[in-house]
Each structure stands twice: as structure tokens, then as C-alpha cells.
Amino acid sequence: MSLRDQAAIVGIGQLPFSKDIGRSEEVTALEAAHLALEDAGLKPSDIDGMMKWSIQPTGENVIARNLGVPNLRFFGEVGYGGGGGCGVVGHAAAGIAAGMARCVLVYRSRNRGSGGRPWAGTSRERDNIAAETNETALFSPYGFVRPVDQVAMFARRFLHERGYTTDHLGWIAVACRRHATNNPIAMMREPITMDDYRRARMISDPLRLFDCCLETDGAAAVIVTAADVARDLRQKPAYIMAAAQGMGPRNWVMNNYFKEPLLESPGAYAARDLWRMAGVGPEDVDVAQLYDAFTPLVLGSLEEYGFCKPGEAGAFVENHGLELGGRLPTNTSGGSLSEAYVHGINLIIEATRQIRGTSLNQVPGARLSLVTSGNMVPTGALLLRGA
Amino acid sequence: MSDGSTEFARRTGGADWIPYWAAARQRELRFQRCLDCRRWRHPPGPFCPDCGSTRNAWERASGRARLISWVIVHPPVLPVWKDRVPYAALLVECEEGVRTIGGLVHASPDALRMDMPLEVDFAPSPDGDLVPQWRPAQAAG
């Protein structure tokens, strides 16, 4: 038994992104849930399951009681922040395939733009200490604690081994920005050039400002139903053709340097299972949303999901392979780098729009739409398909 | 100074890491080693992931390593690091096969080259504790 094609994304809801959304994560999650229900043509009483990111502070019971959901018979969460998103939707599909739910709400709201940020000195000291007891900050005595540092450490070795340059990272930033320029809710809409990229200030050498995602307030929700329910709803279903998660050996969150091979990310494991379940391969994919908290993650995903052989992803991005009209239009609403950073729920929503044919940067006739989660942490991936 | 176990546990990694930071205060680089299969491991943990043994000892490492990667940290940083930017953090692979992170001492980041030989040194972190750091290996080494 497989969950292949047994569930579909039928509703999406997303509030405009901003630096200060002005209300609580609880309220914005509820607003996004209502938008997703309306989009699907469903009522709160249709919901019988919920899945969330572990990092999401607002519990399912809070959402359920405020929406007026009479009973949840299936609920749970997936950890690892930006690694979790595809797993959250994947578990929803698994619960549906197993008969434990018919209609599952997935939600993510986050006030990171206006909330405390230790690097900006806007959070209290005790937040810093809390960060240091986390697995993501094993090496705080060396000032090696920011996510950008942890990715940069991986990136320098990765570029060296593969023969890539930081310009290859720049082409990723430029492509994402290009896709955000016509997106009215994107945080960053001004086009950037490679010269802009090269001139940007260093954050963690070799990574510069435009290698990094955005601090965002945002909220979004997705409704997943059984395939037989999906057929009769308002929107064209985005069937979940495959869902996979991966961790690989000896995983450490963000500081994932203690495994062999050093440069193989959890994404490599998720990719193998994804293609096996789907029965198709990367050559069949029309459009992708590759998790881009930082540019090097995209370069790695191009290899690990099989779009490029090791060492060939640099030429792929330099030849505009990620842009609309290229071989694999990627992060077509701007991604985490230019639209918003909300642990990837915006990527899942854009992947769904591509199946519906409603993206602002629509890939004509897109039928297979890939989404991945963050590969510096335990990760996941989804392959969506149209009818 | 007290044995510091409270500060260590709070600072980084939790209880499994206390011997790592405690050894550094004695200017020693030590890693956990399985007493049954004899494999080294780092970061530390209660079970040997190779053989399942819970018997381990913190054995002294040679202090010789190879540079795997590095970053040079620029602002914004936590308040205690503000006066130290830009500074380097190194990922090294020790002779024993384990990898760890440390700072750079006795050299400028400009001198760093992939896979160059390094040796351990000890210098204080901003909180004053001696912690393992890395410097370019002597030519004869």
C-alpha cells in the first residue's frame, strides 16, 4: 500500500507577508485557515484532522475550538523547522490514506519579522541562552551559532569539492528575485543583478546578504482531503503523487557535519524514496519549489533530487535553468529568498498554484510540481500532480 | 573556579559534552571512545552508534587535524561577539577520524587553505574558559 494519489491539496490560504503583521500568530493562523476553507469550498465542520510544524506555537486545540471544529480524530506534528513542511503535508496524506481522516488542515503562522531576533539584539538575553542549549548551537564558545554560519560551513566545502563558485549561488538569488518582481505580496520585489549580488555585504564568508532568506511575519494554511472528496470541490485538485521524508545517518540539526559522506544531505534520502513512490523521475518534473533558506541549499537539491549530476548544478543555474522559460522554473513566487520565509508553507502553496494553473509565473501546462523542505535538517519532499 | 558543570551544561551540548569542555580547561583535547569496539566518536553520546555499547572513555587525541571548511563571521552577531568581528570558525577532521569545530589562533583567515594541516591549541572563549582552538601545523609536524 502507498499513499500515492490518495489525497490532494484542495484549499490554500495565505495572508500578505510583512515585517509587522500587527496581530498574534494565533489570530493569523485562524485567518489563513478560513481563507483556505473558503478557497476549497469547505466548512470548519468538514475538518477532522490537523497537522502542524512542531515549532508552531499555536496548538491544534486552539485552532479547532476557534474555528468550531466539532472533533479532531487525527492530529500531529513534524519537527525540524524548515525541514518539516513537506512532512507535515505528507503525514496528512498518510493519515488520509490510512483512513484516519478525510479532511486535514495544515497551518503555519510566524511573527519572525516583528518578533525577537537575537542577532539584531531585539530579543532578551535569556533567549540567547535558550538558543545555546539547542542542538543547533553546539559550538557557541566559538560564536558559531547562526543558521547562516552553519550553512556557510557546509557551502564552502561543497563549492570546493564540486568546483562551484559563489557566482553560482548568486544566480540562484537573482532567479528567485526575478520571480518575486510581479508578486504583490513578496517581501522583496526590486530586481537584483549579479553585480548587486557580488557587491552585497558579507554575512558569513562565503555567504553574502542575498544568499539569505527574509525575516517575515506571515501565515498560511493548506487543506488536504481524500482524493474522492477532492474531485467534487471548487478547485482543481493537486494530487499528492508522492511524499517522502529523510534524515540520513548520525544527524545533527544544522551542524550536520558528523556523518559520511559529509556532503550528502537528508535530501538525498528523501529524494530516493520520493521518486520510488512516484514512479517518475526528475526528468518528468515541470516546475519546482526547492527550499531556499540559503542559496547553497538549492544547489545541493539540484544534485540530490537528480536534476544535475554532481558538479553540473553550477552551469545549470548560470544558464538560467531556474528561471521561467528555463529547464526547471524554480521558486516561481520568489521562494524564501525573495517572497517570504515561513518555513516553506509558501512553497507548498505555490507548487499547488502551478498545478491549478494560477501562478503569477505559471509554467504552461505544468503537470508535475515538486516541493522540497530544508536539507540542512531532517527533511521531506512532495510531488504534486494535476489530473 | 568551580568545576563549572552547571555553566558547561547550560552553555553548549548538554551533559554529554561536559568532559569535552572540562578537558580543554586542562589544555587537553579529548574525545569519547568506545571501550568495546574502540571507535572514536564526536559529538558525544551515551551509546556507541557502531556497536551499541554504553562503555566509553574520554581518551586524549593527538591534536593533529585537517581543515575541512571554514567561515568568516561578519555582523550581525550576538552582543558578546560584536567587538571580535570578523572572526573565523573552522571545521576540522582530527587524525582519529572525528570532526569538531573551533576557532583560529596564531594565523589570519587569509592563511587558510582547504585540507591544510592544523594542530590544537587552547585559548579562551569570550566567557573566559579555555576551549580547543586550531592553528596551522608547524612545518616539521
Quaternary state of this entry equals heterodimer
DSSP helical segment count of chain B: 2
The radius of gyration computed from the alpha-carbon positions of chain B, rounded to a whole number of angstroms, is: 16 Å
Helical proportion of chain B? Answer: 10-25%
CATH superfamily grouping of chain A: Thiolase/Chalcone synthase
The helix-and-strand class of chain B reads mainly beta
Describe the structure.
The complex is a heterodimer of chains A (387) and B (141). Chain A is an alpha/beta fold. Chain A has one domain (7-114, 214-385): Thiolase/Chalcone synthase (Peroxisomal Thiolase, Chain A, domain 1). In chain A, strands 3-2-4-7-1-8-11-10-9 form a 9-stranded mixed sheet. Chain A has helices at residues 25-40, 60-67, 85-97, 125-132, 147-162, 166-180, 194-199, 227-230, 266-278, 295-304, 313-318, 335-338, 345-356, and strands at 7-14, 49-53, 74-78, 103-111, 202-205, 207-208, 217-226, 238-246, 287-289, 368-372, 379-385. In chain A, 34% of the residues lie in helices and 17% in strands. In chain A, helix 6 (166-180) packs across helix 10 (295-304). Chain A is globular, with a radius of gyration of 19 Å. Chain A is built from 13 helices and 11 strands. Chain B is mainly beta and 141 residues long. Chain B has one domain (5-136). Helices cover 11% and strands 36% of the residues of chain B. Chain B contains 2 helices and 8 strands, in the order H-H-E-E-E-E-E-E-E-E. A 5-stranded mixed beta barrel of chain B has the order 4-5-6-8-7. Chain B has a 3-stranded antiparallel sheet with strand order 2-1-3, with helices on one face. The longest helix of chain B is centred in the first third of the chain and has 8 residues, at 18-25. Mean pLDDT of chain B is 91; it is low at 1-6. Classes of the chains: A alpha/beta (387), B mainly beta (141). Chain A binds chain B through residues 118-121, 128-129, 132-133, 137-146, 149, 152-154, 156-157, 160, 201-207, 250, 252, 255, 257-258, 262, and chain B through 10-14, 17, 21, 42-43, 49, 68-74, 76-81, 84, 86-87, 89, 91, 98-99, 101-103, 109, 114, 125-127, 129, 131.
